[in-house]
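Supplementary material to the annual report.
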Amino acid sequence: MTKQSWLEVSLIVSGELAEAVTEVLARFAPGGVAVESTAIQASADEYGEPVGPMRVCAYLPINDQMEEVRQKLEEALWFLGRIQELPEPTFTIIEEQNWMQAWKQHYRPIEIGEKLLVLPAWVEAPETARIPLRIDPGMAFGTGTHPTTQLSLVLLEKYLQPGDTLLDIGCGSGILAIAGRKLGAAAAYGVDIDPASVEIARQTAADNATNEQLLFEAGSVTDVRQGMFPASQAPVVIANILTHILIQLLDEGMADLLVPGGVLLLSGILEEKLAEMQAALEQHGLEVCEQLMIEDWVGLAVRQKNN
Ligand code: SAH
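Predicted assembly:
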């Protein structure tokens, strides 16, 4: 076998952009994409915040097609850069013998909240008291690097009581429902309108050996209300989707998924959309009991008024 050298492409971006950049690089890198993140550090409010930016990095095999692939990759990054400003990528040639090492050193497990550790599916869990959550980077939305997912996990850790049932609306990779089961939910049920996400969520559940009492189906709020799962109400309902969709889901009866006294955990709200969100909550008889922020994203815990 001839020795293979690799071209390392790397960009340092904010946590918010890392997911989009990962997705672009993944299209060109046969071996996958590494996202290096520093830990989520506990902050004064005890819930933690991400520390510093993220390094996203991919490896292209050096061969006859490499120049062509590199050009396409740069083009794709340029398009992404037109939506949100991106730094120039750095290119470094890595000889085969150093490659595995170079690759591995980028995989740092991400500590989230007090109890969770998110890590790529193939990395061995380090010795830790934290609960490992194995997620393949670069698949459905929800690798753990995005601030909105982190806010969701922190809220979940805080509000979910052992034995609760959890409903996850817009499950993506399944990260929240799987985390819920690992944090002691008796059952967790996730829906997503994207059938590909549902497939990935099921696979991720299998990777985490949490398939029991954990179901993912294609659908949304209305399907859950109509009895798609063994439970159509739960003490904890979580949804991490953009504000206008959250509002739409409230109109479809998302708050009716709560048992009396239950808590609805909402993330995916940009700070500038908070007033709009609050007005919708008010309209649905809900009140905010806690608000958390990472960068310019807001996460909310809300309950029915008079409970
Ligand atoms: N829960 C994951 C993924 C969030 S991304 C996490 O926290 O990381 C939001 C997900 O919601 C996407 O997978 C998207 O397909 C899904 N989605 C968008 N609109 C939806 C709707 N109306 N009903 C259900 N899911 C929806």
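The longest strand covers residues 258-270.
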